[in-house]
Amino acid sequence: MTATATPISPNVGPDATPHDAAPAGVAYPKTIKSFVRRAGRTTTGQAKAFEELGPRFILSYTGQPLDAAASFGRSAPLILEIGFGMGEATAHIARVRPNDNFLCCEVHEPGVGALLKRIGEQELENIRILQHDAVEVIDHMLAPASLDGIHIFFPDPWHKKKHNKRRLIQPALVAKLAARLKPGGYLHCATDWQPYAEQMLEVLGSDQLLHNSTPDGYAPQPDYRPLTKFENRGLRLGHGVWDLVFLRRSA
């Protein structure tokens, strides 16, 4: 990722409170983060899910290469998700793809609690959560060619031009992600902001390790990605949605 401003989260708005790694008053901290801390209240149900399910489904950030088979209790294709919000789409995808393992990064505590609650209600076994900055997870816990897929759905578009540098999809981060995909692995991004979709198409298309699965540009919505309440609301208002699916080259 190129130089960024306040740490950013795929599902967090620009009015969030900066992470404590960024000193107050510093607009462009040197340390790149994938998120912004935002305030939010954890419900009673989410708190109960943290207590009962957290020890099993939340992994500790170790800074050491992840042993995915040990973490999930099985060997299976590994999919990384960056920023799952409240976990609605994540739980759906894990349910319809039971043969895949999903490693999900999110720092927003109510969102983590909400996903844990869904895990319990839907009896999901193939999700593990890292409540930590995804960039550090990528740098220190994921080996090259260790991922079968990556999901980044509706990252913060940072609408103002002066804030575009804060967007998650930047060449340096995409290079990190591409290097961690196995040959033939995929990177799936989705956004409802056309200027961001255009930037994504340009950035992903410029990475030498990736090629577009859809020669014409944007991909049809894969059947595993559901329409969330947020997305349905946008569609009713006439907003578009753009999916991009790029594949890791074999060579």
Which architecture does the CATH hierarchy give at level 2?
3-Layer(aba) Sandwich
State the end-to-end distance. 23 Å
Radius of gyration using CA atoms only: 17 Å
Instruction: Name the poorly predicted regions.
Output: 1-39
Q: Can you give the helix content as a percent range?
A: 25-40%
The count of strands amounts to 8
Strand order of the largest sheet: 1-4-3-2-5-6-8-7
- CATH fold description: Rossmann fold
Secondary-structure-based class equals: alpha/beta
Question: Which assembly state applies to the chains in this document?
Answer: single chain
Order of helices and strands: HEHEHEHEHEHEHEHE
Structure, explained:
- S-adenosyl-L-methionine binds at residues 81, 106, 133, 156.
- The model is unreliable at 1-39 (pLDDT under 50).
- This protein is of the alpha/beta class and 251 residues long.
- The longest helix has 14 residues, at 44-57.
- It is globular and about 45 Å long.
- The two termini are 23 Å apart.
- It has a single domain (44-248), classed as Vaccinia Virus protein VP39 (Rossmann fold, 3-Layer(aba) Sandwich).
- Strands 1-4-3-2-5-6-8-7 form an 8-stranded mixed sheet, sandwiched between helices.
- The chain is 32% helix and 18% strand.
- It contains 8 helices and 8 strands, in the order αβαβαβαβαβαβαβαβ.
- The relative contact order is 0.16.
